[in-house]
Amino acid sequence: GHDSKRLGSSWFVESCIVKNQSTGEEYTFSINKWFDEDEDDGKIVREIFVADDTKKISKMSKYTITTMTGDVRGAGTDANIFCTVYGTEGSSDKIDLDAPKIKGFNRGGKDEFSFETVDLGDLRKIRIGHDNKGIGASWFLDKVIIKGSRSGDTWEFPCNNWLDKKKSDGKLVRELE
Q1: Is the pLDDT of residue 51 over 50?
Q2: Rounded to whole angstroms, how far apart are CA atoms 163 and 139?
Q3: What is the Cα–Cα distance from 24 to 34, expressed in whole angstroms?
Q4: Is there a contact between 60 and 118 (Cβ–Cβ < 8 Å)?
Q5: Which distant-in-sequence residues (6+ apart) come within 8 Å of 17 by Cβ?
Q6: Strand, helix or coil at 136?
Q7: Beta bridge partners of 19
Q8: What is the mean pLDDT of residues 105-134?
Q9: Using an 8 Å Cβ cutoff, are 130 and 82 in contact?
Q10: CB–CB of 48/31 below 8 Å?
Q11: Which of 46, 70, 90, 116 could crosslink 75 through cysteines, CB 3.0-4.6 Å?
């Protein structure tokens, strides 16, 4: 990754070669992604996964996260939303759902985000929350639906609650199963 502070810091990485200095073995990891806040998914730091000691690259999976904001007064939010997904085979990194070019999370709205990570197996829970920033930070989350492109499976995580310090139980982050 990089810090994105210099002019022209946009960077497309096709692959990364890692060489073990002791053995001389080389491993090539296919990436084919931009490292740029204004391109692709806006990430400037990425993780590359290895499955096990056999040095095979893990099976990667694409997922689509759909958030459903409730249809109640004041349900939308201006805050920055994040999520971590947990499955039988591991967990994702913290995923920023408030991408720079997207204006979403409106009352009664549906917002979709895609991410790629190692195959997480059967999804068990998610941890979703926000940073409480903005004039209208309060958020009423109806539910989250995640679809795996590799398996075609869909998981639904109902919430039907506020993520707000002053409403309901005061939680800004919730674990949904």
Answers
A1: no
A2: 5
A3: 29
A4: yes
A5: 26, 27, 28, 29
A6: coil
A7: 26
A8: 93
A9: yes
A10: yes
A11: 70
Residue 11 and residue 40 in contact, taking contact as beta carbons nearer than 8 Å: no
Q: Which token pair is 164?
A: 């707000």
Site of tokens 């996260």: 65
Contacts of 110 (CB under 8 A, 6+ apart): 66, 67, 68, 69
Bridge partners of 85, per DSSP, are 126
Query: Does residue 99 contact residue 41 with C-beta atoms inside 8 Å?
Result: yes
pLDDT digits (tens, 9 = 90+) for 59-118: 778 999 999 999 999 999 989 999 999 999 889 989 999 655 567 799 999 999 999 888
155: its two tokens: 């998981």
Burial of 98 (0-12, 13-18, 19+ CB in 10 A): buried
pTM of the model: 0.73
User: What phi, psi does 27 have (nearest 5°)?
Assistant: -130, 130
